[in-house]
C-alpha cells in the first residue's frame, strides 16, 4: 500500500488496545513511514523462555494472526503443551499456547545466540511477513515491578497469575536509568522526517511510561519539535482493556480520560478523547493540550483505520500550528 | 503388583525396542526389584531444550503414554508448535510434539535450577505415575559422536536429521573417561541383592555400549558375580527397529544375531535369540555364552511380559549354574 501522507511517525504501543491502533496506522502509512515501538517492561523469563508479550501482541496483530475470540494470543491456538506441562507439575498460570510457544522458543534461541532483542524481533517479524518495523523500546531489560499492598510483584505475576487483584501502590521500571532506547527507536526519534509521536491507547502506567521514561526519549521528542499525540485508553470511566482504570482508583486518581491527560501533562501536545467523553474536552484543553473528539472504540478494522486517519490528521494540524 | 520372584535386577535400555522389554520386566518385578538404566548418549541440546530421547521413550512406555501408531513419541500428540516454528524459520527436523515439549521444558527448567539429570528424571517419572525407578546411565554428559564418511555427526543429527544415511565408520562417547554412573545405577550395581543385569534388545553400538563403557560398570558387574543377559536386537538378519543392521554392514560385520553376540563376548554370559535364529544357537554357545531361544518379537503387552519372564528364568538358571 502506498501512502498519500507525508512524513514519518513513531507509534508507542503496549498490548491489545495499542496494537489495534498500530494496525490502523500500518494500513495508512508505508513501512518506511512508521516505526512501532513496543513496551518491553512486561517481558519476563518463564520456564526458560524470554517472553515479550507486547511485542508478540503487536506482531500477531499486524500479521493478522491474532485470536479474535480470546482477545489475545494466536488464532487457531491449542493447549496441548500446557496440559502436558500441568500434568508434569509445571507452572501453568501463564497460558502458553502450542503455536505461541514457537515464538518464545525462537526468540530465546536467537537471544542465546547473541542477537539483540531488536534483531530477534526483526527476524520474527520478517518470518511473519510484517513489513512495518516493530521495535522493542530497548534492548536492555527494564522489567516493571508492581508495588502492591501484598508486596512487590513482577508484572506478569501481577497481571496474569494474580489477575490484577493485589492493590497497586506504585510502579518501578528496574534498570531504566541505565537502559538505552533501542537503536531503531533512537534513529526514528532523531530522523529529520519525524512528524509526530503517537501514543496508542495503552495503559499509561505500565505500557507507555516505561517507554517515555527511558533516558533520552522525552529529550529527543522535545528536540525534534514534533507533536506527541495520545489516544485515551479510558472511555466513559472504563478501561477498554486491562487494569488501567482499577490502577487509577487504587492510586487515588479519578478513573477518567481527563486524569489520563493530567498524567501526560508536559509530555503530550494533543489528546484524543472518545465521543462518549466529549464533555471532558474543555477540561483537557485547560491542561494546555489540543483535543480531538472522535470514536476511539476499535471494533472493526475500519474503526482502526479511521482512528489512525483522524489521529494523523490531528497530528498534522498541531504540527503546522493549524488547529482551527 | 507383587512379585513371586526373588532378587534385584538392572535392565539396560536404549529407546523403543529396549523400552518394550523394560515394560515387560516392570510387570513382573516389583518397583524395588528393578532399576531401569537408560542410555543418555543420544541426549542433546536442541533449541535450548535438554532432550533425552531414550529416557523419554522408557518413561512414556512405562506410563502407557507411547504413541502406538508412530512407534515413538506420545499418544494423542499434535504438531502445532512445530508448524509454527517452521513458519518462523526454526529448525524443524527434530519432531517436537506439543505434548512432548512439556517434558523437555520441564527437564530443562529443573536442570537449570541445579537438579541432576537423575533428580529431574525422578521428578518426571513421579509426575507420570511411574513406580519403577528409571535412571539415566550417568548425570554427566556423554554425547555419542557418530564417525561417518561424511564427517562426525552428533547422534540425533545422524539419526533423525540425516535419516541414518551417512556411512558409519565408528563411534565415540565424548567425555566417557571422566563420567560416572548415576548414583542409583552405581547403587544397584553394588547391591547385595543384585541377581542379574539384563541388556534389553537395543542397539549394541549406540544404546548399550555407552552404558557398559562407563568407567566402573563392567568391573562392578564382574565384582557382583551376577550373570549379564543380552536379548538380541537383530532377528533374522534385520534390526527390529533402528539402524543397528545398517551400522553392522557399514562396520564390516555380518548382520546377524551371532555378530551381536560376538560384540558382547567377555561381557555377556547369556544370550537370547529369537526362534527365527535358532540355527545360530550352537555358534553363540561356541563363544562361551549360554543361550535361550524364544520369541523375542514383542508385538503385544503379553509378548513383553512373556519375554521378561523367560529372560528372568534364564538369568536365574545361569546364576544358579543350572543351565541344563
What can you tell me about this protein's structure?
- The structure is a homodimer of 324-residue chains.
- By secondary structure, chain A is of the alpha/beta class.
- The first copy, chain A, contains 13 helices and 14 strands.
- In chain A, the strands form four sheets. Chain A has a seven-stranded parallel β-sheet with strand order 5-2-1-9-10-13-14, with helices on both faces. In chain A, strands 7-6-8 form a three-stranded antiparallel β-sheet.
- In chain A, α1 (16-28) packs parallel to α2 (53-62) and α1 (16-28) packs across α13.
- Chain A is globular.
- Chains A and B meet through α3, α4 and α5 of A and α3, α4 and α5 of B.
Question: TL;DR of this structure?
Answer:
The structure is a homodimer of 324-residue chains. Chain A has 324 residues and is α/β, with parallel strands linked by helices. Chain A is built from 13 helices and 14 strands.
Secondary structure layout plus pairing:
The structure is a homodimer of 324-residue chains.
Chain A: E1 8-13, H1 16-28, E2 34-38, E3 44-46, E4 49-51, H2 53-62, H3 80-87, H4 98-112, H5 117-127, E5 134-136, E6 144-148, E7 151-154, H6 155-161, E8 168-173, H7 183-190, E9 194-199, H8 204-212, H9 217-224, E10 228-231, E11 234-235, E12 238-239, H10 244-250, H11 257-263, E13 270-274, H12 281-285, E14 290-294, H13 301-319
Parallel strand pairs in A: 1-2, 1-9, 2-5, 9-10, 10-13, 13-14
Antiparallel strand pairs in A: 3-4, 6-7, 6-8, 11-12
